[in-house]
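Take one protein record:
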Amino acid sequence: MNILSSDADLDEDPFNEKPSLIWRLISGMFKLVGLLLLLLIAAVGFVYYTSQQQPEFYTAAMKQEADQNRAMGSRMETTALELYNSALYPSTWEGSVSEMEINGWLASELPAKFPELLPENIKDPRVLLAANELTIACRCRYKDLQGILVGKFDLFCTEQTNQVAVRIRSIRLGVLPFPVTQFADVITDVLRKSGYESSWSTHDGDPLLLVTMPEDHLVIHDSFRIVVKSFDIKDKALHISGETIEIE
């Protein structure tokens, strides 16, 4: 009897099920990989889309006319010069610059007079001033990502003379948090090379950068010393006060 001619024997051959089973496994794997690729593409697309989103204040600031920016930038320089002149001799002094003046200066004077101040991967910075909070937004390129970098900060003077604390509330590129702590040593090194002493701490869970202003930046003609008393952010303006004292 030839068993190969028997349909029943062929149906019972266990090898007949293997090709379809293997194919189903391979097909399922391809579908799974395809699904993961679609999810990955969607995630990359979402990150890119959100990284391009601009805060409302940044969109509005970027639409300001060039003439207005120049006028506001010039007004800020005038205010800064008046404040500087007030601090040249023993006295108490104070001054303030508005959000519009700062943004005008950033738009018109910074790229024209101090183009080397910004890194190559940072462009078009603008600020928003709220109560005890400074928000800075700019166009940024970081590794393979490009988008709008937004940082929220608080500035205040500490009990140590001429030391300013920078509380870093958040820094994000789109929805991606920027790894501030990973760059702490780099930031400290950059400040050190510029003559600023700095250290890191925390405030309510936020990174806190403590910066001490160099002594040679604060001494006038070896006779007077500037003491910065306060930094305040309110009424859409940055306020600074201090006094100039004689060196004994």
Notes: The helical segments are 7-11, 18-51, 56-62, 66-86, 99-113, 184-193.
